[in-house]
Inverse folding.
């Protein structure tokens, strides 16, 4: 049996030796998940802002759906995207299955509801505070949304980081639509799944430790954003 | 001067051709057992060096590989479940099925050997002893070639393990490696292909108990996917890879792949 | 000739050329909040210039009256007639300073920049406005780290930034130190002297005496008394107003 200590040593030596395969896997993980996070923010923030500010019939239903979608299981998202992108599926002609793009699509779908729901909460709180002042100043709706997005930027950044954390750690969606192809679509989580299935627990654990460090880094970033915001009285 | 220009042109053309080939890539739908054994990591660089074609392997269970291929999500199928492969070709999804290589299945078990099958060669007899002794047995329980083979062997032993599902008979519903991990975790016997077993790194106190029965022969076949059903298929590149696997060069390469000095796969493509 | 043209263009752009908002005429203003009648058929007339101080006990509806006049909420019944102008246009030509200032999460200067830009005003005025309210040295400070008095002065500068014709102030000095109170009163008086119509809600009779040209006393959802400051303070006619003023003086 391999000990955590062995795995830690292996992880360290892999990182320090600058193993090219490992580097490629880590970089692809970051590329896929960061891109998915960026796209999810582009889609999710306006939706969150709209639902935060607008009052319309069925809004409470939209809220329930948004919050429920936050818990979408990655494998379900992966399966849905597979069915669309498969050659036999409606979008098969695009030839995107088993590419990083397919993985980005799946992770984007996975975390867009998270970004939308969390940013809705942030922006609604801010809007409650600002709404009357904004009406007194006769701001247009666009100006009001711009001000909310800008003033909520630190809180929204932590929303984005939460989405990224979820994306980079999931395995269910990317393994279905990416196929875990070596040097093409293999990311950290699918590599961990593969090494575990090969019984190479030390290597799997080493990759897991690297993932853990990235998660720690993300949380450290969240924390420092919060501190910066507090320092500038953005709380 | 003239010669210089000509040779420069020739070099340019050659480079362009190489670059073109470099851009080519195909997707092979294959099984976890071949991928986990490391065979592709050995074969693919050899083939790519020779042809310039990038081969991307999606490693899933045989059943899922065939299902994916039926959705046209691949260019070549390389699996081990002969009846299903023949159905795949008969339904028009594959152009032609060719025997490629074989390995064999073994039953591995814990050092304690609770069913007392160590050293047996008769696989059906061993399975009967496991069932009679209600010794733990971990099965893939998925749609893989290994699972189909296991079901066939139980049937030949006149045992219905599914009746004991959840008791001594445990279906993991996972790949070969994951099933080995699970089986070793609960002290269960596991039917595995030899290639996965040799390259498996979490053996603990497990060893091969049953091997050598010709009924545990595991034949792999290769099938290019039919462009008539799947227009997106990269016919030429896929055929090039299939031809190479079946050629003397490919067959030799398969035989040359060894872990700890043990040969994992035995090429048996029909001679021209 | 060109000088005349330039003058005409400038004059056309000036608010003075728009139809005036005042005098204001309010009739039968009624506001229900749930089962409570806050305002009950209130009548009110406000003249063209000066500073009107609105007084009344807690819950008399002073804040809600300001919000109604400013167009932030709609009355249950009654008319608010700003010389026949429609509500959206009226709100745009007025400003309201809330009891608790709502400042954006940016610097003091950033707060003014934002409003000037949003309202299509000259952003070069930020420095002048900050200087006017004595905050020039705090320009780059985060607005939400300002003291209570500084924050309210910034809110006042923001209100003045949009060149309001009417400026509503809702107890702007309620919890401030005396120095800040006087600074704000000075700024408000300067605005009145420039011709800005002031409507100022306060509980502080001393402040009311310092600022008011006329006093509106709310009681029972109506205007109980509306009189010139010189007449009101020596001898309030309405019993409730008399008690209110007496009570304050006794304390």
């Amino acid at each position: 049996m391999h000990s955590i200590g062995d795995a830690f040593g292996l992880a360290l030596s892999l990182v320090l030796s600058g193993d090219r395969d490992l580097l490629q896997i880590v970089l692809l993980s970051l590329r896929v998940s960061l891109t998915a996070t960026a796209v999810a923010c582009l889609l999710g923030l306006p939706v969150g802002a709209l639902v935060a500010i607008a009052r319309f019939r069925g809004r409470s239903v939209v809220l329930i759906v948004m919050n429920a979608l936050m818990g979408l299981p990655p494998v379900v998202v992966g399966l849905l995207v597979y069915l669309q992108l498969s050659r036999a599926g409606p979008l098969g002609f695009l030839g995107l299955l088993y590419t990083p793009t397919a993985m980005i699509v799946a992770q984007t779908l996975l975390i867009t509801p998270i970004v939308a729901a969390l940013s809705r909460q942030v922006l609604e709180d801010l809007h409650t505070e600002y709404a009357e002042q904004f009406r007194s100043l006769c701001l247009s709706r666009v100006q009001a949304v711009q001000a909310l997005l800008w003033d909520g930027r630190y809180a929204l950044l932590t929303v984005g980081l939460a989405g990224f954390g979820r994306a980079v750690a999931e395995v269910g969606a990317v393994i279905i639509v990416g196929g875990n192809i070596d040097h093409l679509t293999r990311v950290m989580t699918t590599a961990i799944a593969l090494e575990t299935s090969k019984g190479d627990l030390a290597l799997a654990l080493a990759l897991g430790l690297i993932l853990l460090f990235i998660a720690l880094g993300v949380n450290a970033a969240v924390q420092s954003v919060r501190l910066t915001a507090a320092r500038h009285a953005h709380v | 001067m003239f010669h210089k220009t000509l040779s420069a042109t020739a070099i340019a053309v050659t480079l362009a051709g190489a670059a073109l080939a470099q851009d080519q890539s195909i997707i092979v739908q294959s099984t976890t057992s071949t991928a986990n054994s490391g065979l592709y990591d050995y074969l693919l660089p050899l083939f790519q060096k020779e042809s310039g074609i990038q081969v991307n392997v999606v490693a899933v269970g045989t059943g899922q590989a065939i299902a994916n291929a039926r959705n046209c999500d691949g260019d070549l199928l390389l699996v081990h479940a002969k009846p299903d492969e023949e159905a795949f070709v008969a339904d028009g999804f594959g152009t032609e099925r060719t025997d490629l290589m074989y390995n064999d299945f073994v039953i591995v078990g814990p050092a304690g050997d609770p069913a007392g099958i160590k050293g047996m060669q008769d696989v059906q007899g061993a399975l009967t002893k496991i069932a009679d002794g209600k010794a733990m047995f971990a099965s893939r329980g998925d749609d893989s070639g290994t699972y189909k083979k296991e079901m066939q062997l139980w049937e030949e032993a006149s045992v219905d393990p599914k009746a004991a599902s959840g008791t001594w008979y445990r279906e993991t519903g996972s790949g070969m490696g994951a099933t080995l991990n699970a089986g070793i975790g609960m002290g269960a016997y596991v039917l595995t292909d030899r290639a996965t077993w040799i390259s498996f790194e979490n053996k603990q106190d497990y060893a091969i108990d049953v091997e050598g029965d010709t009924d545990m022969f595991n034949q792999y076949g290769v099938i290019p996917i039919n462009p008539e059903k799947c227009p997106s298929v990269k016919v030429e590149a896929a055929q090039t890879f299939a031809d190479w696997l079946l050629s003397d060069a490919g067959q030799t390469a398969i035989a040359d792949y060894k872990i700890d000095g043990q040969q994992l796969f035995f090429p048996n493509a029909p001679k021209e | 000739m060109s000088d005349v043209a330039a003058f005409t263009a400038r004059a056309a752009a000036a608010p003075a050329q728009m139809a005036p908002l005042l005098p204001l005429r309010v009739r039968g203003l009624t506001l229900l909040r749930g089962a409570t009648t806050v305002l009950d058929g209130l009548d009110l007339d406000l003249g063209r210039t000066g500073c009107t101080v609105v007084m009344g006990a807690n819950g008399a509806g002073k804040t809600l009256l300001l919000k109604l006049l400013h167009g932030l909420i709609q009355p249950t019944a009654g008319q608010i007639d700003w010389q026949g102008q429609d509500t959206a246009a009226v709100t745009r030509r007025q400003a309201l300073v809330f009891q608790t200032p709502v400042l954006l999460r940016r610097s003091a200067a950033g707060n003014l920049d934002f409003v000037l830009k949003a309202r299509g005003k000259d952003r070069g005025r930020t420095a002048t406005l900050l200087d006017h309210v004595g905050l020039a040295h705090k320009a780059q400070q985060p607005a939400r780290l300002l003291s209570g008095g500084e924050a309210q002065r910034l809110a006042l500068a923001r209100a003045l930034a949009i060149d309001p014709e009417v400026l509503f102030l809702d107890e702007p000095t309620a919890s401030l130190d005396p120095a800040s109170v006087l600074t704000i009163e000075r700024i408000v008086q300067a605005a009145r002297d420039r011709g800005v119509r002031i409507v100022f809600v306060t509980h502080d009779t001393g402040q009311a005496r310092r600022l008011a040209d006329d006093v509106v006393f709310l009681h029972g959802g109506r205007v109980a008394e509306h009189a010139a400051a010189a007449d009101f303070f020596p001898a309030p006619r309405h019993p409730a107003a008399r008690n209110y003023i007496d009570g304050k003086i006794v304390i």
